[in-house]
Structures are given as C-alpha cells and as structure tokens.
Amino acid sequence: MDDSLNDARAKSAQGVGASALRLEDERYLSGRGRFVADIKLPGMLDVAFVRSPLAHARIGAITKPEDGREDVFVAADLAGVKGIRADSGLPGFRSSVQPILAETKVRHVGEAIAACLATSRAKAEDLADAVIVDLEELPAIHEMTTARDAEMPLVHEHWDENVFLETAVDYGFDAAIAGAAAIVKRTYRTSRQCMAPMEGRGVVATWDNQAEQLVVYTATQMPHIVRTGLCECLGLAHEKVRVIPPDVGGGFGYKGILSSEEVFVAFAAMTLRRPVRWIEDRREHLTGNANCREHHYEITGYAAADGTLLAVDCEAIVDSGAYSIYPFSACLEAAQVASILPGPYRMAGYRCRTWSVATNKPAILPYRGVARTGVCFAMELMMDALARELGIEPHAIRAKNLVPPEAMPFTNITGKYFDSGDYPEALRRAVEAIDVPAVRARQKAGERVGVGFSIFCEQGAHGTSVYAGWGIPMVPGAEQASARLTPDGGLELRVGVQSHGQSLETTLAQIAHEQLGVPIARVRLVHGDTALTPYSTGTWGSRCAVMAGGAVAAATARLGERIKTIAGHLLQVPAGEIVFAGGMARTVNGQGEVSLAEIGRLWYLGPQHLPAGAELAGLEVTEAYKPARDTGTFSYACHAVVVSLDAETGSVRLLDYVIVEDAGVMINPMVVDGQVFGGAAQGIGTALYEEMAFDASGQPMAATFADYHLPGAAEIPAIRIQHMESPSPLTRFGQKGIGESGAIGPPAAIANAVNDALADLGVSIGEVPIKPERVLRAIAERKGQGT
Amino acid sequence: MTAISLTVNGRRHAAEVEPRTHLADFLREDLLLTGTHLGCEHGVCGACTLMVDGRPVRSCLTFAATCDGAEVQTVEGFGEDPLMTRLRGAFSRHHALQCGFCTPGMLTTAYDIVCRLPEADEARIREELAGNLCRCTGYAGIVAAIADVLADPTPASLQPRERPALRSKDDGEPSTAPVKAPARTAETSFATSLPIPERIDGGVSLERRLALDIAPDRLWALLQDFESVVGCLPGAALETPSGSPDAPVTGSFTVAIGPMRANFRGRALVAYDDARRSGRVRGAGGDPVSRSQGEGEMRFAVEAGQQQKKSVLVVALVYRLKGPLSQFGRPAIVADVVDRLLARFADNLAALAEGRGLVHAAPMSGFGLLYQTMSKSMRTLLAKLRG
Amino acid sequence: MKPAPFDYSAATSSADARQQLVAGGGAAKILAGGQSLGPMLNLRLARPGQLVDLSRAGDLRSVTDEGDTLLYGAALRHAEFEDGDVADATPGWLPAIARGIAYRAVRNRGTIGGSLAHADPAADWVVTLTALGAEVVIAGPDGAKTLPMTDFIRGPLSTALEPADVLTGIRLRKRLPGARWGYWKFAQKAGEFAKASAAVLIDAERGETRIVVGAIERAPIVLDDPQAALADPETVLPLLKRLTAPNPPATLALHAAAVRRACLAATAPKDEDMPS
C-alpha cells in the first residue's frame, strides 16, 4: 500500500456510517488471497468427474480402465454414504434423493457418474477419458410448462407427477375484482441462468490424524451447514468434521449448498487418508450447474378506472430441476413467489398458485434476489400493461398503489410486515432523476428510446418465524458472535457467517469500533471455520449486516461492560462513567484514561490488579442476537432506466440508469454502493444477456463464456445511486439487508423501458434476457400479423 | 517433458514442463504463485491475465512450453512498482474489488491501459476492460480507479519487449525436437448399442435435390447397393452389412469441424420402398472420445427428371447431436458442415450413378490430417472405392 | 479442463515448421497464437498429437514491401497491427480492424495467419481481408503457392490448407488515400463473436469495388454486383435470402443491416469516417 492510502485509512472515520476502506483489500491486491484452488497439500490427488452427456438415461455397465481400477470410484464404491436429501415439511412435498455419484439413472446433463483421482487434474481427466459408461437414453423433460402433462416421463420413477410441490393461496380474491375497469392478463418468463461467480466451487479435504478429524476446505457461503450435511451423508459425528472456508471468490447463492462433490471429496480423503482436491472448471459450471431463475408466470391484474389496483391473480411455475437441494429444498423459490408477489403495493384481493416442477436439468438454487427478481419482473410488467391499458403514465399507476409512508409499519395482503420506509418518495426521486418528460420529447422527435421503472421491496434477514413456515431443513434462529480482547488491546471477532466478497472483515470491524473504539486495523475477523466460530446458517438472504452485525454488537457490548468494570476500577470512577475512544477507555469527564492494551495485559498477565469478580468475567464473550421481531427488514428501491433500441439489430443500449435505494442505516456506504452496483450488473445480465438454453433433449447450449454472456464493463452503464436512509425499527443500528437488492430491479425496469420504446409498433416483450434475436423476432411476428 | 528457462517476477527458473501445461498451471502448481487465478480456461474471463514480455496475455491460453526465454510478471511480482502501487491504492479507494478473484487480471489490464492509452476516457476504459469479467462490482469502482490514475499518470516501469526469434542450428535440424507425450491409449467406447430412434423431433433438417444424368430405373438399381451408397458419404464406413431387412448395419462416421473431430460408431436401419422408389436410413452413433452422440434420419427418393434418362434424387436429412459436441455454442457452423457434407454426398452419388470415380473421398474436414488418422479399414475401403 | 497430452516443438522458420509437420506424419498441427485453438485444446475438443509452434519463426514475423503490395508474415500479431508496429498497406484501416478483435490480451498473442487458418466465419480478418482482395501465401510440398482469400476459405473452420502446408504470409495491395472503406459488425457484447458483419471496399483508382458479408456461418459471401448494392442497399436482403436459404428472417435482416451500415460507412463524407 502506498503511504497516502495508509494515511487515508488512518484519517477516515471508522464507525457505523463511515465509508472505511476495506481491510481485506491489501491481500487481494497483492495476489495473497488464498482461494480453495490455491491450497496444495503434500500427496494431494486431484479429481475429475465423468459426467453424464445425456439429460436422462439409465446407467448400464461402467467399465474402469485396467490400469486405474483403484483410482476410479463409482456409486457402488461409496459404501455407507447417503445421498443428499432436502425435504420440505409442507404438505404434498415429493421427496428426491440426489446420489453422490449417479446410481441407476442420470437425471441431468453433467450429473457425476464416476470420480477419477490422479496426481494432477490433467492426469485425472486422462483417466476419466478411459472410463466406459453405457447409457440407455430415456426421454427427457426440458420444458417446465409441459412437465406436468400426463404423457410425460417421470424424473423420479416413484412419483406420480413431475412436481415437487404445489401451493395455493387466496386472500379475498373473488370479492375484490368486482368493478374492475381494466383487466390485463399476461404471460411472462425468465430464462435459466448460471450464477457464475468468477471462482467456481471447489473443495480440498484431508484427514487430520492428530485431531482424528476430517478437515474440509471448501468454497462455501455456509460452512456450518455444509458440516452438518457432510455428517449426515457420511455418518460422522460433528466433532469428526471441521469445515474451513478459504477466501471465497463470489457466491451469490451458488455456494449456498451442500454439493455432491463436497461429499465425494470428503469421502475420498477419509477413505484414502490422502488429501483430495476438486476444482470446478467453467465447463462443469455452465453445462452441469445451470441452475437458477427459470420462472413462468400467468398473471392477471385488475384495476379500477383511476388506476387503483384491485387484485392480482397468478399461476407461477418454477423449474426446480432434477433434485431438491440441501438445505433450501426444491420449493423455497416457488413458496417465495406466492408470498411476495404483491410487492410494495396495496391491493384488496390476491390469489396465487405455484408449482415447483421437476425437469431433467440441474437442481435450482436460490440466486441473488431468489424469487424476487422473477416476481418483480412479473408484477412490474403487469403494472405497465395496466397503465398502458388505462392510458396513464407507468409511474402514475405505481404512485397510486404504493404503500404510503404514513401506513408504516404495514402488514400487506400476504402478512408481510414492512418495517419502515417511504416508497412513493423513492419513486418520486427516480422519476425526477430520470427525467421522464425529456424521454417523451425524444420519442416525439422520432427517437426509438424508452423509459422504464421497477419498484420493489426486499425482505432480508428474515428468521425463524418465516422459515419455519416454509418447512425446509434449515430454519435460522439467533446469530452468535464471539469477541475477545487480546493482551495488547487488539480485538478478535469470530462469526459463523462467511464473507465471499461482502466486506465483512471491514463492516463487522466497524461495528466493533462503534462499540469499543478499537481502531479497525486492530480488529481481526475470524469467519467461517467451524472449529473456531459459533454455529451459523451462513451468509445468504441479505442477513449478515443485520444478524452478524447485531451479534457482533451484542458481543462487543457485553465485552465493553467487562472492560468498563476494570477501567472504572483503575480510574476510580463508576463503570457507567467510562467511554471508549481511539483504543482507550476514558472517564466521561476526560480526566482519566487507560488503554485497552493495558486492560488486556492486566487481565491476562497481571490479574492481581483486577477488581473483585473481574477475573471471572473474562475478556472473551459469545453472545446470541436476534431482532425482537424476526420477520425481516424491508429495504426497497426504485430503478429507472432509459434505453435506446435499434430496431434493425434488436440491440438495446442503456443510456441512463438511476437507482433510488433505502438500506436503512448504512454501516459502510461505500460497501452498500458496491453491493448495489454489483447486484445491478447481475440484474442487467438477467435482463439482456444471460441465458442457458436447453434443447429438446435436455442438452445445455453453451459450454463457455463465449456462448454464455456475462455483462462486461462495456455493457454496464454508469449507474447513478441515490440513497434514502429510513432506519429499520427492528435492528440494532437501523440497518437493513441490502445484498440482493441490486439484482432484483433491472429485468423489470429494462423490459418496461424496451416495451415503452416499442410501444408505437405494438410490440411487447415478456421474456428475459431481451437478446437481439428476441427483439427482432417479436417485431417480425408483429409485422407478420399485418398491423 | 519440455525444458524451459524463463524469468518470473525477476527470478530465473529452469523447469521441465509437460507440453500441455498452460502457463497459469505452471505458475500455480509448480512455482506456487497462486495470485494468478483461473476463471474459465477458455480465454474469455480474463482472471488469468498476466504480463509476458511486458504485455498482458491470457495465461490459460499460453502454454508454459512456449515461454522459453520469456519474462513473466504476475500480480505477486510488481513489488513497489510505482504505477502498480498507485493502481492498488485507487482500487481500494474506489472499492474496485469485492471477492478479489478477478483482481489480479484486472490490475494487469489496468496497468496496460494506463501505460498504453494515456488519453483513454471512460468509454475507452470500458471497452478495454471487455476481456476482464468481474461478477461482484458492476465495474463502477474499477472504471473509476483507472480513470483516477489516468488523471495523474505515473510512468510504467514495465515495458513491452520483443523476445528474439528462434535461431536454427547450423546443421539445419529443427532447434527443438518434438518431445513425445505419454499417451493414454485406452480404447474407449461410450455407448455400445444406442437405440435407433423411431423419429427425430426438434432436430436440424436439410434437403437437397440433385439432378442426375441417368435414368430413374438405373439410379434406383444403384441405390440398392447400400455399401456403395455409404461409400459416397465422405468419412463414412460400413463395418457389418445387414443380414436381414430388420437387422441394422453397423459402421462409423468421421467428421471434423476445424480442429475438432469426432468418430461416431453406431448402427443404422435401412429400408427401401420399391413402390415409391424411396428409402430411409435411420441411425444413431456415439463418439467415445468426446462422449457425444448423434442420431439422424436420411430419406431419399428418386424422381423422374424433366427429360428422358434424367432423374432427380431428393435427399432429406434430419439429425440431432447430444453431449459436448452439441454444447458447442454455434450450431449454425455444425449445420453448414453437415450441409456441405450432404452436397458432397450428392456429388459422389451422381458420380457413382454416372459411372465416374468419387469426387470427394476424404472425410469432411478443415483439418486435413484427419485422413491419416482414419481407421485402417476406412482407408482400405476408400482405396477400394477409388480403385 | 486441461488438454489431452500432445507433443510440442518450436519452429525456427516456416521451412522448419514444414519439415516438422511432415515428420509428424499427419498428427502434427500448427500452433500460431493459440487463442482459438487453446480453448478447444483445453476442452479436449481438439486432440492433436503434436503442436508445431510458429510464434517465433523469424521469417513469419516480418513485412516485405514488394512495391505494389505488402507481404505480411503470418505470425504477426493483431496487436502489432493495432499499434501501427507494422507498415499499413491501407490508409489507416488495419489498426481499426485489429482493435476490434476480441480483447487486448488475446491480440497480444493471436496472429493474423492463425486467424485465417482457423477460418472462423465471424473473424474480423477473414471478412476484411476477403474484402481487401488479399492473397494468402502457402508453403507446401510443391513449394510456395498463392491463393486469393475467396479460394482459401472453404467454409466455417475450413480452408484450402493441406496437412503439410504452412500459411506463411498475407499479401495486400497498397491502397491510396482516395480509396474508401467501411466495416461494420454486430456483436452482442464487446469483444465477442460477431453475429453479423460486412466489409466494403471502394477503390476507384484501381477499379476495385467489393462487398463482403461475413459471420454468416459459411465462407464469406462476396457480392457479385457490389455497385447495385451500393446504389440500392435494399436489394441486399432478397439477395441474401437466395444465397443463405435456411437462415430465419430476423437473422437475414441483421446481415442486410450490416451491409447497409458498412456501405454507409464507406460512402459517408470523409470527416465522418467510422473507425470500424
């Protein structure tokens, strides 16, 4: 680091609300991050999997090469290993078991059939080339909308229908639709995507003879859950397994899972008593793990003549793929659709049916935004359709129906408790910033441009009360954190969540700084390692700032009380008159001070100076935290975008993009901006670029990033962010979960803008990504209708 | 193994590498320089970008064996380099990294932008960053950090240099003799008896109509000789003819698309309809090496030509690929290869019908060495057909 | 994924490369910049037995001024064209073309000869050199031969190169400042494969006018009557319909748009010349 940077770090404010520079940057910027693929242990073997080239097939004979029989594993070699099972407790759920290596059938392209071990990945692939597998192909299900048809083959033979779960809710629907002046019914669809963190999955496992323990280094968002899952599959007690996440190169939900590869590598290391490594390559990721976002909606909106939204009716299908994944199950996404579709709007009636269908594709996983992105897409496109039907501006119909600030806190039609905020103000600011009249003027002048909005709220950090209702294997409860003052006045924090880019090493240090005044450079965060950190469900659901942040605040507060007792004794004032600043404990009148280093030294090395009782109140505490009401925070945002559309090429350019965002109190505004920018770029990928198509036999149609397009710097505009800051009354500092928000709004806003730009042609697009060919096809079809 | 000698981050290294080992793996696995990350190994994501001879390159598409005499600079090797120091500071101040995985490649590209394009504006920075994907930041901080450093430039200490051309030895022998790779020669067979499909839904279909200078009766008679008909399809070989009308024939079919190739082995059912003078071949085969499968149906029919003693052969093909070869993202290229194959088949058939020698004998290929690597039986067959 | 094993040798010259190809007995394949072959090797879709590395063959790394023409060595890299490190036979068109190829890190390794030998129909050099009327020089068993681009590119990923041939150079006629040029390509994403492209050369002094349609998943199409297309670009769509029947209408329309825009670029007033 250069000196000016160190100066900047030293000078910058460090507590809650400061854009403190990140503590984790230095190691990444100098190439010293340690990711899972960087781990190299003596005697380590690399794994290459033989993966299914077919989407659905019965497995016949598997022949291992003569010279590699010992080094090739198939399902029959996994004695005592259980498959991965994640059932929902909801009535009617159909159960699936995902084998670690395929047993009698393969159910999607890329499913692992055999594992080959060698001293390098290249040699392991040579070995995999020599394994002979006989597959008898079966008809594959590649399309969610027909998966339930009677003549369809079954993904799981023992089921009677390709459906994991069907749900239905009805909140006063029939009564609400009377008197509707406008009724629009639309079909919308979001394509299957690959989450594509820049680092794929990867796992290194080794057996520690000294600890008599399996040690698993894995790129994961939820190390403790992976440990529990490994114990279940391998039949081990928890104390026999330690999971250590190294630096994790992005996750976005992709690493919020117990993967079959983790189970295999752990099994192999345990069995062979040698370190074993598997690093997912990009082809495996794209062809075998394309696994999110694929939704289909038939949605009907009912509105009064003045634009008042009366009711919404929806039938939603989620393509859940072949298996129910651990721990979120195959039905989390559809369950979420039903509960959050109404979005930030008031309405009198709502009805929704959902199907989580099984297909011969990889299992679906909750990707950043989870169902919210699809739901926002369906709801916000429908709102635009209603506006067009009624001849009013899209922002006007939204303003009419948003929950107003005076109604906060507000319980919506599905029972969601909106904690705080001013949704209409977010819309108003976005409308102003994007300059709607200027766009209308350009349209009048003949330019093919369009403006689009989306507004949504993001429930984050929701806990027991919400997840218990969804009946999945993992219900989050209180979050724990440990805080320890070191003998020289440093602070060690331990949390069970795992950063995979969220800047937790910095933001949690800021919270500790807020409580104890310790410079953040002296705060060390230990995260993830199951041997060192309290149990946690991990990093998902935009929960870390609220839950881990709250836990760190609680632990450091308790630690602070103990430090104050000692400081008060040393400074001869009551503990209540001690405050913390700059690594010192001071009297409120400023007349005495003692450093935290001195207090630490005394407790550990000079206990004879401690007051009575202080020796038993150690300088290391673990506290559990849970908001008094755990229904979650509701951050919200309005996205506004201006696009230009080239009707000859079908290409869409983003001319301007505004996000008005309310994350409550921001712990680190720079980090919040980073989350919003990054999420929005992913949302733009969903909107315009990213699609993993499957052909009729279930073959994925892209194997490299040359075919699966992630947006690059040239595809992302300079996004303008405006912050509102309405504190959540539910959380420790008023902070709200914000990690996923950016990824929710773009598909809806961009599609609405594209449709605005195409309105004069009578063309409307209801499917993302809006690739050029999709636009050209839509225009051509419309022309074909002769209008 | 190939012996190389190169400089990495200022230190000389002599090493023996497998020719197939790319530079990133050599650095990561042999030199334990794990700052260079692999994000795709297809040259698209840019995570592995590093400096070779002062220029950013993809280390996943650069074989270590080609780096003899090179100067390699990885993210670990910039030390106190003033420009890299400023870039690092700007990346931190502008929050240009979150998970840090793309960062080494991003810094390398940023370094190149700053020293090569001092006038770059925001649009140019974004264009130049096209080859480096970041999934976390949305690029906002990265673009801002580079613009920040460009606004107040620092001279780059790392400069491009040209590695000298290789010099041949005086005896005219190649300066490096090829090193033999240990090949794994296991004969693999992925699917030994693929079912022959009744029909192919959703496949690619092509049709050609070929006017021939031959009477329909004679053409129809010629088509009864299935082995000769197969001989007209470049790259195809019949292994066992059918014993009865209901039993399939077995054979193989080699096709190359650029440097990729596949040798499908499988079975086909052949049916003739004398009354209609038409026929149908349905088959399926697998390529064990790529673990890909293909299935197809070819219908053919003889029609009378406009004049006497002339006929039209109508050939219609439907096919579908499965497995890795089908996941190649540009199916239109495959379709064109098949289309040209069909054209050659038609040419050959015409030549056969008209009593001439085959026009096209080698399998379809833009990669001519295929012919040499074809199975012996195929070469024998082709030789026979040519003779 | 990692490549299947192969043998490797570096050629000191094109003659050396030829010898090694012959010695390799058909299993040997040329490695130029490796930017297209590399991914296919890494995916094990290509499994050559041996690679002969051309990247440091001295005679393939130079430009020869032949008077009316320039002969470019096949192992010259895209970045060397982009940076103006090699003489430009055109009034400044080659750097702009080179700049549009993939990404800088790829351009630093990828070579013009490698690009032509790979013959991706969407490749910039394949389309633009066809339009510029380039010739390729090939060293083969019977000595050197020269082929026009139109005979060299046979189809997607298919060329006239025989197993023991080495593409050694590309010959371009010098274009005077009065010549006009337009190249337009459509790629959904910066640096990605073009989905449509077209190049237009109008060289009145030499009496050459050429319009080439690329990225059409077959060998580039050289329009028979470029003047007609220039006079009325609307005639291109029906023409393309005839020439590339199986393409869906939206695709054809995109290709026609590419031709229109390339024509526009070539005929626009000079000061509005588009760089690419």
UniProtKB/TrEMBL annotation, chain A:
Q: Residue limits of the Aldehyde oxidase/xanthine dehydrogenase a/b hammerhead domain?
A: 30-139
Record key words, sorted: Molybdenum, Oxidoreductase
SMART domains per the record? Ald_Xan_dh_C
Pfam families in the cross-refs: Ald_Xan_dh_C (PF01315), MoCoBD_1 (PF02738), MoCoBD_2 (PF20256)
User: What are the transmembrane regions?
Assistant: none
Question: What GO terms are given for molecular function?
Answer: iron ion binding; oxidoreductase activity
- Could you tell me what this protein is called? Xanthine dehydrogenase family protein molybdopterin-binding subunit
Q: What is the lineage of its organism?
A: Bacteria, Pseudomonadati, Pseudomonadota, Alphaproteobacteria, Hyphomicrobiales
From TrEMBL, chain B:
Q: Where is the composition biased (Basic and acidic residues)?
A: 160-172
Cross-referenced Pfam families:
Fer2, Fer2_2, Polyketide_cyc2
Sorted alphabetically, the keyword list is:
2Fe-2S, Iron, Iron-sulfur, Metal-binding, Oxidoreductase
Enumerate the spans annotated as 2Fe-2S ferredoxin-type domain: 2-78
Residues of the region (Disordered) are 154-190
The molecular function terms of the Gene Ontology recorded here are: 2 iron, 2 sulfur cluster binding; metal ion binding; oxidoreductase activity
**What is the name of the protein in this document?**
2Fe-2S iron-sulfur cluster-binding protein
UniProtKB/TrEMBL annotation, chain C:
Q: Which domain of life is it from?
A: Bacteria
What is the source species? Jiella avicenniae
InterPro entries linked to this entry:
Diverse_Substr_Oxidored, FAD-bd_PCMH, FAD-bd_PCMH-like_sf, FAD-bd_PCMH_sub1, FAD-bd_PCMH_sub2, Mopterin_DH_FAD-bd
Q: The FAD-binding PCMH-type domain covers which part of the protein?
A: 1-177
A molecular-function term among this protein's GO annotations: FAD binding
Query: Pfam families attached here?
Result: FAD_binding_5 (PF00941)
Q: Does the keyword Flavoprotein apply?
A: yes
UniProt name for this protein? FAD binding domain-containing protein
Which terms are listed as keywords in the entry? FAD, Flavoprotein, Oxidoreductase
Keyword Transport among UniProt keywords: no
